[in-house]
Amino acid sequence: MATAQQLKALLQSYSEADGEMFVSVALQIAAHEARTGKGKFASEIKRLVDEIKGKQRTSKVGGSVPIVRPSGELATLLSATYPRTKLTEMILAPEQREALELVIREYRQQSKLREHGLSARRKLLLVGPPGVGKTMTSWALAGELKLPHFTVQLHSLITKYMGETAAKLFAIFEAMRHTRGVYLFDEFDAIGSMRAGSNDVGEIRRVLNSFLQFLEQDDSESLIVAATNLEGMLDDALFRRFDDVIRYRLPTQSELHDLIANRLSAFQLGSDTIEQLVSQAVNLSHAEICRACDEAAKMAVLEDRRMIAPADLQRSIQLRQDRRRTAHEGL
Ligand SMILES: Nc1ncnc2c1ncn2[C@@H]1O[C@H](COP(=O)(O)OP(=O)(O)OP(=O)(O)O)[C@@H](O)[C@H]1O
Ligand SMILES: [Mg+2]
Fold first, then answer.
1. CA 95 to CA 287: how far, in whole Å?
2. Is the pLDDT of residue 266 over 70?
3. What are phi and psi of 46, to 5 degrees?
């Protein structure tokens, strides 16, 4: 019989969707059984493990996909991670949460949808100001769906030569077909910055057009996420090609409250204090608030306190308001 430790490791690897660990523990159990003279049982386990491995290779929908590292040219175009971020870690407006939960639900049941000639939404455009959780959303989708996350390196993708850029784009869309994952075109508006590297404005249009064509033809099982700050740059043709456009904005007062409470949940901070801080924090982004909270938390840790000093947090928030004002005045 498998030892208690082995059973625990097996359950743990299942709960963490760690396919490699699952297989390795199962093989340890097989070896253990073989040593105790139960050769038949051991080979039965090995056969089951081989079956599991085969299924992992074909990346069945709903299961976890083993981490893959892009190689060759793809290595410069895609950076791979395996995020554990969850949607519940994010403070979102109700309509955002609803839209994202629907993406997850449809993706998890895509084969059921396909049986009825329907397809799950997979192509998302996230639009909103800096620091409001667009990149984090992409990680959370990968985390929830247990998919690897690939960030497209736009600076490697975009070259002076249209033909080369289109070939690289093609390679990325091919990768999406072969390796199921979440593919993030972050700072998507950078495609617009092609202008800097080219004298021909028509070039930008052509790169965007090939992106749109690839996007339209894509029938992979990957999720494609494009994120941008600049709504103005994006035209109707682009919006139409995505299954959903999710808009982000700065946090409301109640979202600010939840953000501070969440970020500092491991420390002591009174609800009244949070209320006061919220009014001071209006117009700051989620990212700025998180950083201000982290600064106050570090002070508490360094001084061996469990209590957040409201003055520390006030100072950090004020600093960010001042920076924002200076940046605004500088425009
Ligand atoms: N909605 C949110 N809920 C919780 N934390 C958030 C949220 N948005 C941002 N954060 C925090 O701020 C960090 C930076 O956010 P993120 O990179 O996702 O912003 P972004 O919208 O992609 O900004 P940019 O347009 O500058 O790329 C996150 O890693 C997270 O710590
Ligand atoms: Mg981002």
1. 20
2. yes
3. -60, -40
Nearest to 279 by CA among 260, 306, 305: 260
Task: Report the nearest-CA residue for atom 18 of ligand 1.
Answer: 133
CATH 1.10.8 in the chain is located at 253-330
∠ CA 46-50-51, rounded to 5°:
120
Q: Give residue 23 CA to ligand 2 midpoint distance, Å.
A: 35
Report for 6-10, 200-204, 227-231: range of highest mean pLDDT = 227-231
Positive/negative CA dihedral, 157, 160, 162, 163: negative
Q: What is the mean pLDDT of the chain?
A: 85
With a 6 A CB cut-off, is 286 part of the ligand 1 pocket?
Answer: yes
- Distance in Å, CA 290 to ligand 2 centroid: 15
Phi/psi-derived region of residue 101, left when phi > 0, alpha when psi is between -120 and 50, beta in every other case: alpha
Cα(61) to centroid of ligand 1, in Å?
28
The token pair that represents 93 in the structure block: 């407006």
Q: Is the pLDDT of residue 199 over 90?
A: no
Q: Decide: 130 in ligand 1 pocket, CB within 6 A.
A: yes
CATH superfamily of 74-247: P-loop containing nucleotide triphosphate hydrolases (3.40.50.300)
Indicate the CATH number for domain 253-330. Answer: 1.10.8
Enumerate residues 6+ apart whose C-beta is below 8 A from 70.
77, 78, 80, 150, 175
State the span(s) of the chain assigned CATH 3.40.50.300: 74-247
